[in-house]
């Protein structure tokens, strides 16, 4: 059933597990999330990126909402990484109940202004906002901040940002990366612990593809209750079609659609178990 992301994350935070938020592009992906969540009796979040929305339009949002609503487990629909006011307003109008107002490429004050404005709009509709801080650019105290360090979330800034923006969830940057980790992932758990001390709202970790189980568990212990997953599932989808494209024998497209859905479902179910949300619906 369609539930708000806020409700899903508040329950997760209270019971120390995390909910997977899966970026999806089409019906097969959406079905894979619903089937995995139902099979694991778990809540889940269907995520959509703005450029996917530009391609699919309002019928695609309607499909996401309908899938969440008819699921046997609580599910929400969330707009991921959006820096565009108009798109945020459009999806809120369409019934999406949470958005990532992503001002992370902006300087702190501009990010704060943008997030505050989007949060006011969302709250007026009973919706909620995730924000991201952590790309402190340039120099600090006259010293150049290394690129890696420059991207990390500062705990004190996080506190100020959350208090002044009124945002509902905070995406942190602690060494997590979108897509592949080059070498072993290195997450700054001391930083995450300090952020947790400063900020009470649910924390979000992007770039969950490629993170080992111990890091997932440690992140949850330190307050992460939403993990964003995209590339591992997307990779599986692409691998499937590449393999099927090699042979002429499989021509029933619907059979292929069902098979690719089942492949994605397996990975999503694994993530759900890893995040500790299995059995929590
Ligand atoms: P991955 O592609 O690393 O899973 O990251 C997904 C993400 O953060 C989407 O917002
Ligand atoms: Zn992300
Ligand atoms: Na990743």
Automatic annotation (TrEMBL):
Residues in coiled coil: none
Cofactor info, note text: Binds 2 Zn(2+) ions per subunit. One is catalytic and the other provides a structural contribution.
UniProt: Zn(2+) 2 binding residues: 102, 132
GO molecular function, one term: aldehyde-lyase activity
Zinc-finger as UniProt keyword: no
CDD domains per UniProt: TBP_aldolase_IIB
Binding site for Zn(2+) 1: 81, 178, 206
Cofactor: Zn(2+)
The keyword Ubl conjugation is annotated on this UniProt entry: no
Active site per the UniProt annotation: 80
UniProt entry keywords in alphabetical sequence: Metal-binding, Zinc
GO biological process: carbohydrate metabolic process
PANTHER family: D-TAGATOSE-1,6-BISPHOSPHATE ALDOLASE, D-TAGATOSE-1,6-BISPHOSPHATE ALDOLASE SUBUNIT GATY-RELATED
Protein name (record): Class II fructose-bisphosphate aldolase
Species whose genome carries this gene: Euhalothece natronophila Z-M001
